[in-house]
Write a structure and sequence with these properties.
Rossmann fold, elongated, 24 helices, eight-stranded mixed beta sheet, 667 residues
Length: 667
Amino acid sequence: MTTPLSAADPTRQRLFVYNGGFLRQKRVRHILALKGYDIRIGMPSETDLVGVWGKSPTAHRGEKVAARTNAKLLRVEDAFLRSVRPASGGDLPIGLNIDTRSVHFDSSAPSDLEVLLATHPLDNTALLDRARGGMARMKRSALSKYNNFVPEAPFPKGIPDAGYVLVIDQTAGDASITHSGANADTFREMVLDARLENPHATIVLKTHPETQTGHKGGHFGPADIGGNVVVLDQNTNPHRLLEGAIKVYAVSSQMGFEAIMAGHKPILYGQPFYAGWGLSEDRAPIDRRTRTLTRAQLFAGAMILYPTWYDPYRDVLCSFEDTLSTLEALSRTWREDHNGWAAPEMRLWKRKHTQAFFGSVRPVKFGGNIHTRRIMRWGAHDSPEATVEDGFLRSKGLGANLVPPLSLVLDDLGIYYDPTRESRLEKLIDQSLTLEPTALRRAEALRQKIIKSGVSKYNLGVKADLPSLPKGHRILVPGQVEDDASIKLGTSKWQTNSNLLIETRRANPDAILIYKPHPDVEAGLRKGGLSNEAAAVANIIATNADALDLLACVDSVWTMTSTLGFEALLRGVPVTCLGAPFYAGWGLTTDIAHTPDRRTARPSLDQFTHATLIDYPRYYDPEAGYPCPPEVAVDRLAMSKGNYSGLGLRLLAKAQGALSTYAHLWR
C-alpha cells in the first residue's frame, strides 16, 4: 500500500524513501518538496524516483527497491555550505545537493556535478563575476561548511602563524573517502609523503570539526605526531589557515576545494569532485576528467549552479548569495554569543528582545553569577563593557512606545552616536574601502529596497497629508529629543531644536524651512519643543507628517545629529550637519561643526551603506524566530501587519507618556 506524506499533486515527481532520516528531518523533506518532489513511502513504479541519502549505510535499501522496480535513484546530500554547527550539534541545513546520476563524492561514475563541470560552457560573464564575488565574500565573512569558530582566534601554542605545510584529516569511515578511491592507509601515505617532501617545514595536521565533538574519530594518532608534525584540533577559520600554508595535502575533504579557492594547487590522494580539472596535483588521477577549469568556473559550478539553496525566512528556494546572507547572520550570532552575555542593568521590558537577539546560543544572564561572562550595557557609558543600542532600521513603531526592535547594534569599542571615542562602526567604515564589487552591489540593492519599500527607522504606518509646500529652496529641519545621548555627546554650539532652526534660518535667509518635530516629542514622550522665536522662523511646522514624504519634496536637510540625516543620505538628499553624527566627517555631508580628526576615510555611499546597515547592526526576524540578514528585516518592516508590540507594552507606554519627565527610569 502506498502511503502519501502530502496531498497528491500530479505536477510533482513522486519520491519514495526508505531512510527514517527523510521522515524525521522536516527541513530536508521541505526543501525536497519545494524542489518539486512528493515524498512518499511504499512501493514505486518505474516512473517514480527512489530517494537515498548519499552513500549512507541505509542507502542500500533504496538501491534494492530501485533495482527491483526499475525506478531511478535520486541521491541527496548536504550542500557545501551547511550550517553553523555540524549535524551532530542539531543545526538544520540551508541547502542540499540533489543528484539524479550519482553523488558528488563518488568517483566511480559521473555525477550531475561532474557532468556540469565537464559540459557547461561556464563562460557567462555575470556568472563568473558572481563566482569571484562569492569567493571573496566567503573569505571576508569566514564562511565554510561548518562555522562554529571565531575567525580571528589565534592558533594554539605550537602552531606557527605562517609557513607551514597543511595536511587535512577527515572523519574515519566517511563515505566520501571510500567512494573517492581512498582508505585509512591513504592518510598514512599522505602524511608520510608530506614529511619526506617537506623535511624542514612544520607539518600541521588539521582534524575534522566533528572529531572535536567526539562524534567521530580521525585517522591520525600519537604515532603520527612528533618531530616536525603538530596537530591542530580546534575549530579554526579555514581561510586564515589556508592563507598561512605554503602547501596543502588532502584526500577528499571539502577543505581541499577551499584550498583551490585560496589560490593553492592542493596535492590530492583521493578523487573528490574538485580533482581532475587542472587546479590540483592529483596523485590518483581521474582519466575521464580532461577539461581545464579556472577557479571561478569550478566555484560557479559547485556553489552556484549545482546546489539547491533554501531561504528559511521567506520559505522559498533561493540564490547562493541569499544563502551567504543567511549563513553570515547565523554565524555572526554564534561567534559573538557562544561564550554567553550578562546584562545586569537591562530594563525589564528590554530583556525579552535582548534574550532573542543575544541569547540563542547561551541564555543572557540578567543577574546571579555573571563574572565569567562578557557584560553588555544599554546606551552610552564610561565602562569598558560592550554597548547595546537600537539599530538604524528599528521597528514598526516608536522605541518610546516600547515596541521591540528588529535591529540592535552591539559595539565593543564605543557607540555610533558618541564621537568622543572611536566606535566599531568607524572601524567598519574604514574597512569598507576594500569591499569587493559584489558587496557594493548588495549595498546598493539594499539601499534601493529601503527606498522603494518606504522603510525608515520607526515605520509608524499612519501618514498625514502633507501640508501645501511653497515653491523655493526647501530645507527640512528634523527636530530631535533634546535629552538624547546623541545631542549631549555629538553637539557643542547648537544643542536644542530652537537653536538649530534659528541657525538654519540665519544661514539660509530666503529658503523655505520645514520643521519636522520628532515622533517621541509629538507623542508627548520626550523633551524637545520649540521656543516661540524659533517657531516663528519656520515656514511650515509639519506636525504628524511622514518624514519620508517630506524627504521626497525637499532640496536639503539641516540637522544636528538626527538619523533622518542618514535616511536623507540614503536617498541622495544633501545633508548639512551642525553636530557630529555617525554619518558626518566622511566626505558625504557638509559639516559646519567639528568632526573627529580620525575620520579620514572617504567612502562611497554604497561603501558607507554596507558598513552601517549590513556589517554593524544585528537583525532578528520575529516571524522565523532567529537572526536574519538586513534584507529580511526590511521585508518585515514593509509588511502591513503593524508592529509586534503587545497590549501590555502599549498600555505601559501610555503611562510613560504621563511621566515623560522621568524617561531615564525606563530607558
